[in-house]
Amino acid sequence: MPRALRAAVSAAALALLAFLLYHSTMLPGVDFGDTPSFQVMGGNATITPRDAYPLYFAIGAPFVRVIGDRAHALNVASTVEGAVAVALIGLAAAQLAGSVAAGAAVALLFAGSYTFWSQCVITEVYALHACMMALSLLLLLRWDERPTTARLAAFFAAYAIGFGNHLAMVLLLPGFTVFLLLSAPGGWRTMLRPRIVALALAIALCGALQYAWNFRSLWLAAVPPQSLSAAISKFWFDVTKSDWRETMLANVPWGMAGERLRMYAFDVHQQFGYVVPIASAAGLLVLAHSAPRRAILVALLYLANVLFALTYDVGDSHVFFLPSHLMLALAAAPALASIDDRLSPRAARSMRPVTCLAVALAAWTIYDNYPALDRSGDTRPTDLLNAFTTKADGARAVLISGFNWQVENALTYYTRIMHPDIAAADVSDVASHADRLVADNRSIGRVVLASSEAKDEIIAAFPNRLSATRDPEARAPALRDLVADLAPGTRYVLTVLKPPRGMQIDRDDLDRALALLGVADAARAGPKGPAYLRGVGTADYTAIVGETGSAPAVVRSSERPFRFAANVGGADVDVRMESSLAFDTIRRMGFGQVVVGRHHTLIVERGISFAAFDAAGAAMRRGYVASLFAAEPRWAIVEP
Predict the structure, then answer these.
(1) Does residue 437 contact residue 464 with C-beta atoms inside 8 Å?
(2) Sign of CA dihedral 419, 422, 427, 433
(3) Which domain range does residue 11 map to?
(4) Is the same domain home to 460 and 504?
(5) Nearest CA among 451, 510, 519, 520 for reference residue 482
(6) I want to staple 111 with a disulfide (CB 3.0 to 4.6 A). Which of 14, 86, 195, 308 is the partner?
(7) Same domain, 189 and 47
């Protein structure tokens, strides 16, 4: 079979396998974080400069039209984008290594890597970013193989279009530029000929026209810009997120540099273990000997992206490590091909044993990660919002919220798209006139209901004119309530992680819950109590696994993420802490996982996470305290 046909067949098989993998583990609906803000805009005819990402929304729109449910549709779009990315990575790696088999192997390794997989099952831009990175690199390598103007134009076009999804494409510019100058037929000066420069500028301008969609919305606003220069200034400010990005770029304190490097080392091991990074280093050495320009290209692409991610002070920095993961996977391909080629000719022609070992490693990684990354049954965001909005339709109530921005985004999707009958507002929009809001709604028979934070802000603004009473319809159980009536011998897992900013763990509630579980008497849970309890609630990570009424099977506390296995009542329990709390404040996949018998029993979040489960791993009871996923009490705002 000709190599081009083998590469095409391999790419198609990789795409199908990746799609089936991601679609079977896909989040069914809305999530917290940035995800619901994308889901609100998906399928809209107008997007603002602040929304940005015109390519992402353009690709997502047909999915929304066909499927209907915005959240579900855009989640499906991510699975497709991730699958296409895996196929393109396989082609790019094959082009880099000269081996279709090695390309397929590293594509599978990347497909099963923890962070990339987690981004392919939710509405996010990173699957498409990997897709555009791989496409640009593939077309650049094809130009290097046969440097024609048409192939150069195709590379320019793919690179320019990629900016419509994520501006981080600019991090590829140093590597791409150096490679073009080093590889240009006739020397680097030929790349500066007016014809080539004009071609590059024209294609860049066409790529930038994607943002005309965002720019147009400025003139549709209630108060349009007063001039073209004012419009351009606002457009640039919003698209680049200048108000907060300038405080994050290269803003990781030097004193945290060591911790940041430890975070990255943990992150790389989480994706690939020890073998792939070693193979990546070997692959760069192979390229340095056989194709030095390509070695420089891969090294510069890796360095630009990893240095940016290491110094970018953002709560979800782990997703910005993704491009460096991609470069590590690509760099491993030449090593696999070279080692196999050095073996006996017969082995090189048939089995290619090293490449087969890489495929086996990828298969094991996928098998190991599958239950931990399976979000197909994750309805926690919707369940939480259902509980908070129960019996609060617009005919009876107005809801005033003041949640963390991640939850607030989800509530916006919930009230605008899923339940437009609910009358809701953010406290920042109504606090100044809350007294009139309460009076006017009371006059038409509606009550004003508020979250705890919104209640506090409203009462602080009108301390003598408004008061609040707890609404019994929205329950917010304490941890002791979650564990109080469990039968003796019930299997459980309890994790305690450093809570989100602004939240605190109630130590008395935690101690009473531990006593109810039979872990220890609450009075003995202090510093002089059992040694295994000393880190509970004080260490960054704690996990307790056991059966109620008995001493726990495992109690582990640490300042570093860990993983352990235990057998509880005949059930095999796998506890995985999958984060770095020194920097991670946002993780779409959660901060850890609990898998019981290959069943995804609990997604561990910051704060307290709890699950009681049966022998098969199905959660019989699950709850969160001092967490973004904790049930929120509701308050009725009334006039005294």
Answers:
(1) no
(2) positive
(3) 3-373
(4) no
(5) 510
(6) 86
(7) yes
Is residue 450 a part of any domain in this protein? yes
Q: Is the dihedral of CA 157, 159, 162, 166 positive or negative?
A: negative
Examine residue 493 and state whether it is found in any structural domain, yes or no: yes
Q: What confidence tens digit (pLDDT) does each residue in 512-559 have?
A: 999 899 886 533 444 444 555 667 878 899 999 999 988 899 999 999
**CA 102, CA 336: separation in Å to the nearest integer?**
6
Least confident of 349-353, 390-394, 551-555: 349-353
**What span, in angstroms and rounded, lies between the C-alpha atoms of 422 and 241?**
31
d(CA 79, CA 19): 6
* Mean pLDDT of the region 486-491: 95
Vertex 126, ends 121 and 132: CA angle to 5°?
120
Q: What is d(CA 57, CA 211) in angstroms, rounded to the nearest whole number?
A: 11
Please indicate, yes or no, if residue 272 is contained in any of the structural domains.
yes
Residue pair 210/55 in contact (Cβ under 8 Å)? The answer is yes
Q: Which two tokens stand for residue 620?
A: 């019989």
Q: Which of the residue ranges 242-246, 360-364, 454-458 would you say has the lowest mean pLDDT?
A: 242-246
Distance of CA 465 to the CA centre of its chain: 44
Q: What is the pLDDT of residues 417-463, one digit of tens each?
A: 999 999 999 999 999 999 999 999 999 999 999 999 999 999 999 99
Residues 55, 171 within the same domain: yes
Residue of 50, 53, 244 whose CA lies nearest to 167: 53
Q: Where are the beta strands (DSSP E) in 393-507?
A: 397-401, 423-426, 447-450, 467-470, 491-497
Extended strands (E) in 287-368: none
Tally of CB atoms within 10 A around 10: 19
Question: What stretch of H or E contains 558?
Answer: strand 554-558
How far is residue 65's CA from residue 69's CA, in Å, rounded to a whole number? 9
Together in a domain, 280 and 388 = no
Same domain, 489 and 467: no
Task: Tell me the backbone φ, ψ of residue 249, rounded to 5 degrees.
Answer: -65, 130
Residue 548 shares a structural domain with residue 442 = no
| In the block, residue with structure tokens 């509701």 | 634
Share of the chain above pLDDT 90, in %: 79
Neighbours of 505 (CB within 10 A): 20
Strands 423-426 and 397-401: parallel
Q: Which of 419, 444, 474 is a domain's end point?
A: 474
Lowest mean pLDDT segment, chosen from 2-6, 231-235, 259-263, 544-548: 2-6
Two tokens, residue 44: 């809209």
Mean pLDDT of the chain: 92
399 and 305 in a single domain? The answer is no
Length reported for the chain: 640
Q: Which of 222-236, 321-335, 349-363 has the highest mean pLDDT?
A: 321-335
**pLDDT reported for residue 343:** 79
Domain membership of residue 550 (yes or no) is yes
| pLDDT for 348 beyond 80 | no
pLDDT at 526: 47
**Identity of the residue numbered 611:** A
Q: Are residues 537 and 583 in the same domain?
A: yes
247, pLDDT greater than 70: no
Alpha-carbon 176 to chain mean position: 27
d(C-alpha 87, C-alpha 10), whole Å: 8
**How many independent structural domains does the chain possess?**
3
Check residue 640 and give its pLDDT.
81
Residue scoring higher pLDDT (592 or 502) = 592
